[in-house]
Amino acid sequence: MLELIDVTKEYPGGKRAVAGVTLRLEPGLLGLLGPNGAGKSSLMRIIATVTRPTSGRIRFDDVDVLADPDALRRSLGYLPQDFGVYPNLGAREFLGYLAAAKGLSARSARARIEELLEAVNLADVGKRPLGKFSGGMLRRVGIAQALLADPRVLVVDEPTAGLDPEERVRFRHLLAELAVDRVVLLSTHIVSDVESVASDIAVLAAGTLLRRASPERLLHEVRDVVWEMTVPQDQVSAARGRWVVSRMVRTAAGVRLRVLAPRQPADSAVPVVPDLEDAYLAIVSGLLADSAQAVRP
Questions:
Q1: What is the pTM of this model?
Q2: Cα–Cα distance for residue pair 197/208, rounded to 1 Å
Q3: Are 206 and 35 within 8 A, CB to CB?
Q4: What gap in Å lies between CA 46 and CA 283, rounded to an integer?
Q5: Is residue 43 within 8 Å of residue 21, measured between CB atoms?
Q6: Do the Cβ atoms of 26 and 180 come closer than 8 Å?
Q7: What domains are there in the chain, each with its CATH number?
Q8: What single-letter DSSP state applies at residue 111?
Q9: pLDDT at position 292 over 80
Q10: Residue 54: exposure state from Cβ atoms within 10 A (0-12, 13-18, ≥19)
Q11: pLDDT tens digit string along 104-136?
């Protein structure tokens, strides 16, 4: 079990990136959703022991991580958002270098690297210089390096950035498989990255944990606030200024809007079944006024 207790991170100048976050993580996949600038990467770096919080506590299997960070590091795999590589090395050579740095024996490293290259669908290009890899291929190398030591805790920050739709699906399936017997924390601002694989979702905005619940619970909470209506083109700006508009589709009859509102926004508006993006936007926009009451550790 990994537990964060009232974790706060402030940077010089008084900027607070993380504000009193409490999270309890057990085996499974937690999707951490939040807009760009929400503090997700700062929180990921704290969990990965790359940076220390300004205040708060972190415990891993009853060990104080701030006093003994190696207790977590030995069981941690981390894929940062800005993962870098040596462009002249092949994937096998690069992973071998990292395996040595992690203390794996040469024999066990060779077997583990081949296993991981197969898992991320890169076995056929293991000798190709990383400088010639696509963005999606590099992200797959990134997840392979995070898994080298078979970690019990896997932290991945915006892992699908730059991936094409097929690669994103493959990546999500891989994370879901890994979460069967380990803690997986997936940070993203893309709702579709978590809606099909996460049974547990947390929403972070302005460094504050606004909500944590199952997808089913989040959908239940917005069941009465999602509407569709069609308006003339010249009324779109006014509608967006008045309500949260999640989607717009131009039709022959006008612009069809998907609107989040606590009550029927217009006589022509009809209720529609919400999706997870609706729930996410309702939370970060403050539409669900009781957000703080729904946070659980």
A1: 0.87
A2: 23
A3: no
A4: 24
A5: yes
A6: no
A7: 2-214 (3.40.50.300), 219-290 (no CATH)
A8: H
A9: no
A10: middle
A11: 888 899 999 999 999 888 999 999 999 999 888
